[in-house]
Write a structure and sequence with these properties.
3-stranded antiparallel sheet; about 160 residues; alpha+beta; 6 strands; rod-shaped; single chain
């Protein structure tokens, strides 16, 4: 049942209750008055039940909307995470590697939060990359000193 139907039913019961109240105020015998009072009491109970149903419906609709948002967020993350694979870099760091272009690496710690933090080259020739999210350092490339230098023959 939607909120409009509940509101319509509530308004109809309210009108019936008012009519019964008007009948009660009219000059009627005592037996009729007791029946009218009983009917008014039952209509009041039904109104209360409809009001509670309307509140519960609103709560359930809000919960449904929240779950839809959470599901959409989870699906978006799943789609994004599927574009990464766990890889070992030449510097022996275990990070997530983007399978598309441009190639880049993501922090495994932040990836589990779930968020993608692209590792940034420190630009100091050490081959170490830094995560802008958690500040962790990863030896992505071999250090310059680890690369064998070409041997020059015949002097400088």
């Amino acid at each position: 049942m939607d909120p409009i139907s509940l509101t319509g039913a509530y308004q109809g019961l309210k009108a019936a209750k008012e009519i019964l109240g008007a009948l009660f105020d009219a000059k009627v015998d005592s037996e009729s008055r007791s029946k009218i009072l009983e009917a008014q009491g039952k209509l009041g109970e039904v109104q209360d039940a409809l009001f509670m149903l309307r509140e519960k419906l609103a709560e359930l609709q809000q919960e449904r909307d929240q779950l839809r948002d959470e599901l959409a967020t989870a699906k978006n993350w799943s789609d994004r995470a599927a574009q990464y694979e766990l890889a070992t870099t030449p510097g022996s760091a275990v990070v997530f590697r983007f399978t598309g272009q441009p190639e880049h690496f993501a922090c495994p710690s932040c990836f589990n939060k779930p968020e993608v933090q692209i590792l940034q080259d420190n630009r100091v020739m050490t081959g170490t990359y830094r995560c802008p999210g958690c500040e962790a350092q990863f030896p992505v490339k071999l250090r310059e000193s680890d690369n064998p230098l070409p041997v020059r023959r015949g002097g400088y």
